[in-house]
């Protein structure tokens, strides 16, 4: 099967002629190696770069790692010789294995003005601590997560993809520009989208999982991703020796997606201390396994004190941990899975100009997500149940009354609708168009 098109390619191509280093971060097996190879082919085919001027290295190869570590300048010069008038591209995979990588890369960046360095890493923690602080003003950072539902649709059906792109644009214009659009009277593609969306929520978006045809193969791939994560990212990179506690913690978190974290409860059930629990959670987040969603408050001090909500970056991996790949219709955790999927779509598409938060009061009134964009607030609620008429919860109405946003979203199971509450326009849209 050919490689999947990734939306990130457009961004990488956009800035390719600038000098800044590219740092592509993301989970293991999200497609970072593949996108480097696709970028190399694009440079050759579209930019007419000579193949010998594009050097691909992986630091999983201990020989490459040792040579680069001991004499980075000499290694780079061995490829480019004295050709300072030509442009070169060094594509370096699994950069997090290089000790003092940031210092070495800064040194090379300052010496070789004709070289574009592009690095990837599976641990944001390693790249931030060992790389980022040395490269301020010299690096463009990108994130490559698992396939988004938008990318998934492209693979599954060209017909549905055409419909999806048009409606997604309507939604984007409504959320970020306040542009109105008409609600379809009847969605003839609704059941088709529902089927594909529910497949995505069960198996997730890891490219190799999506490529696999049989369910048994998908399970094996998810097992390998989990085993690789535990054995390499955690043990090798982060020097954790007692990983039984980490495994227990992962299982607890998998059962609590969409819920507020209770650190004391997690500590009690993993037989560990508060600080150690927070350390493990930090590792899980920095290696792109989970995401901790902070609360929305106008008072920043209060915001820092409140507990986050927990989501997994891939629902397929989460379902593997529970050994449960049953279809949504018979699952008691159906609502939580769909809410998690909605969160990952917001996260994957997140730009620097907006933040994602949740809202919860002392009386436990809650709104799933709040988008903050340049002072604008957009509340979003996930309601994956049969709906015949536009309805909102009391908690959602309370938020509208208190903050008076101009627009809001209810993400539904195949229901379109519109409601106006005071000055807020609320759109009811099937969750897969997010």
């Amino acid at each position: 099967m050919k490689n999947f098109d990734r939306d990130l390619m457009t961004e990488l191509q956009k800035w390719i002629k600038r000098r800044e280093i590219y740092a592509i971060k993301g989970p293991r097996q999200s497609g970072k190696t593949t996108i480097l190879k696709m970028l190399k082919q694009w440079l050759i085919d579209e930019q007419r770069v000579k193949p010998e001027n594009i050097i691909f290295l992986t630091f999983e190869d201990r020989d490459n790692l040792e040579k680069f570590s001991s004499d980075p300048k000499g290694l780079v010069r061995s490829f480019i010789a004295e050709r300072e008038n030509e442009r070169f591209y060094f594509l370096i995979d699994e950069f997090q294995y290089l000790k003092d990588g940031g210092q070495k890369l800064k040194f090379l960046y300052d010496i070789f003005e004709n070289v574009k360095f592009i690095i990837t890493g599976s641990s944001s923690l390693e790249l931030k601590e060992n790389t980022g602080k040395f490269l301020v003003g010299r690096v463009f950072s990108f994130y490559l997560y698992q396939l988004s539902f938008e990318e998934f649709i492209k693979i599954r059906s060209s017909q549905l993809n055409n419909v999806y792109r048009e409606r997604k644009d309507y939604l984007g214009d409504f959320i970020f520009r306040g542009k109105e659009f008409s609600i379809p009277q009847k969605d003839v593609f609704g059941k088709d989208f529902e089927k594909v969306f529910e497949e995505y929520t069960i198996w997730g978006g890891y490219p190799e999982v999506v490529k696999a045809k049989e369910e048994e193969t998908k399970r094996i791939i998810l097992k390998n991703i989990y085993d690789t994560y535990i054995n390499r990212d955690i043990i090798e990179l982060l020097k954790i020796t007692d990983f039984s506690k980490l495994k227990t913690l992962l299982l607890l978190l998998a059962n609590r997606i969409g819920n507020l974290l209770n650190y004391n409860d997690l500590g009690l059930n993993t037989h560990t201390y508060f600080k150690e629990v927070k350390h493990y959670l930090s590792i899980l987040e920095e290696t792109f396994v989970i995401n901790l969603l902070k609360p929305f408050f106008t008072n920043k001090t209060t915001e820092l004190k409140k507990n986050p909500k927990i989501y997994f970056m891939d629902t397929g991996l989460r379902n593997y941990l529970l050994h449960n790949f049953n279809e949504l219709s018979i699952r008691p955790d159906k609502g939580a899975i769909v809410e998690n999927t909605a969160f990952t779509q917001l996260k994957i598409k997140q730009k620097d100009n907006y933040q994602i938060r949740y809202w919860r009061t002392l009386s436990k009134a809650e709104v799933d997500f709040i988008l903050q964009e340049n002072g604008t607030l957009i509340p979003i609620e996930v309601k994956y149940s049969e709906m015949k008429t536009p309805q909102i919860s009391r908690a959602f109405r309370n938020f509208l009354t208190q903050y008076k946003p101009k627009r809001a979203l209810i993400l539904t199971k195949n229901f379109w609708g519109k409601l106006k509450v005071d000055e807020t326009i609320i759109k009811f849209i099937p969750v897969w168009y997010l």
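Residues 8-143 form a domain with the Rossmann fold fold (CATH 3.40.50.300). The CA atoms of residues 59 and 113 lie 23 Å apart.
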